[in-house]
Design goal:
Elements: E1 4-9, E2 12-17, E3 33-38, E4 41-48, E5 51-59, H1 66-77, H2 82-95, E6 103-109, E7 112-118, E8 123-124, H3 125-130, H4 136-155, E9 168-171, E10 174-177, H5 190-203, H6 210-224, H7 229-248
Antiparallel strand pairs: 1-2, 2-6, 3-4, 4-5, 5-7, 6-7, 8-9, 9-10
Helix pairs in contact: 4-6, 5-7
Length: about 250
Amino acid sequence: MDDFHSISQPGRKVLVRAGWEFLLNAPLEQEGTCVVSYPDRSVRRLETPQGVVYVKFFREDVQSSLLRRFRHFLRNLFGSCKTFRLVRLHQELRDAGFLCPEPVLAELRGKTQIFATREVPGMLVRDALQSASTSDDARRHILQTAATAIRSLHNAGFVHGDCLPGNLSIDGDQIYFLDNDRTRCPHFRSSHERTRNLIQFCAHLPAAPSSLLDEETRVFLESYGTPSAEQLLPVIESRRQEIARQRKK
């Protein structure tokens, strides 16, 4: 992380990439367009002189458990805040040859953590699959490309925290891994975590007739190379139905 500057002030710790210092004084929580909003986090899309960035804000969740808030406090106290770890993680991913957003700012400001990354090219895999102009061959190509990229990620020891079609971007034959807040290299139960990624991805495929979903699920699992594809199909369908019930609430 040689191209990052470290700044420490009372109530504020910052890592900023060289050339992006202008973000330090920008009212990031007011500028741009809000694209995600939850009580504990939000994301804004911001156009800058150096291109589009996505700025994610993590806030302490007052409804989280006491243990979770205590761990959050200790990490912040000893300088190991989430956004600083994300800078290191993205560098590890890039060093391993994977495509992901380029971090430009990580900041701890009071109880708010800020993480800004540059926009990546391409289209979300979810949107590419939903496109009305997408042919059967194009959909197959998208699924095969995503499966191959995820298999490579797993073979390198990483698992994605939220391996969803909306968290991958496809640009030709290249896949960018987005939203890596919980991406990690697990030391235990790595096989379970990899299988969980496959279930996540397939269960969140865009809505389509069940026969098409089953076919596309098989294409994805076969392209990934899992030997337990048939055993996973009922698990994926069960998870898909659970997601549908949650959306109706």
